[in-house]
Design goal:
This protein is α+β, with helices and mostly antiparallel strands. It contains nine helices and 13 strands. The two termini are 18 Å apart. About 6% of the residues have low confidence.
Length: 312
Amino acid sequence: MIHILFENDAWLPPLEAALQGAGLPYTLHFTEGGTLDLAEPPPEGVFINRMSPSSHTRGHQGGVRFLEEYLGHLEAHGRPVINGSAAFALELSKVKQDLALRRFGILTPRTIAVVGREGLKAAARRMELPFITKHNQGGKGLGVKLFRDLEAFDAYVDSEDFIDDPGGVNILQQYIEPQEPHITRIELVDGELVYAMNSSTEDGFELCPAVECAADDAFCPVGDSGKFRLNTTVAADDELLERYRELMAHYELQVAGIEYVTGKDGLRYTYDINGTTNFNEDVEAAAKTEGMAFVAALAGRLLAEVEVRAAK
């Protein structure tokens, strides 16, 4: 059995369709907090982690806390997990992402993490202008703002408009002026390139590609199909993608959408790793592929391995 751990049912239809199309058995587990009896073994099968860092924006931060513990429980009992505890820890922390990217020789923007609102102004004085603010636990673009002067930043920190990270850890990050008005997102499943996509930055920084989000959500502008375009220039054997694969293998991150921006200096700066990736159906149509079919195929291979071991 394939077990889907989730908190947002709006994201399920493409994955369910892919699993059904592959004839794979699955069951859904809505996860928002819960009780974990460590003496009880988890059910047999393969688990797919679909808990997003943005869960708190839907009132489901309890699911994040529960999954942080439950994934370890699954792994301790030898259950295969797609995007398990190491991958989830990486997804929940921009700090950990930056450190991981640096570890694998991947260029990142200069980043400062600040715990507590009171330290933000002093930290901003250590940054070159302009810079971006964001949350350590990202979520639908909340807290993502561009500042070109310190006075505007100070006013924001003091205002009622300030939005704190759910864990109180906020990020100041060097703003990379793009060579062209877009960022590039690379979708990889089990090391295989699904597609590369350009996301327009002309209207802001909230760039969730999922068609399953609410089209009227200001932080997930999915209604504009022109915002996301297939990128056909990124090759599967691109050196940067090879480094992404090495990173993903190390952190057992089987499914990821990784974003970079090409600066005016011609260098590619990677700044975000998304484990609970959603595939854009317009881009999929242009690429003549279905991202969730890759995920279903991976789950099917893992389930077959489980069944072989059980038969011995």
